[in-house]
Amino acid sequence: MRVMCGRFRCVMAADQRPLNEVVFLTVAEVAAVMRVSKMTVYRLVHSGHLPAIRVGRSFRVPEQAVHEYLRESYVGVETA
Q: What is the pTM of this model?
């Protein structure tokens, strides 16, 4: 997911929503949604698997990116 800035506004490239309409989550909130530790979220961000923006010394992750990551990572279990 990329952020593109035009002359008058910035939008998220994946869904073309203006940034002021995008919901950003903190690392702690992402960890709670995914039910993992904050360190796991930091690893996903630093490895590039989970897109994030940096605000000062902290990261913010688009909520939609978290849902997409979980959807793509889903592993179905087949029964015999």
A: 0.72
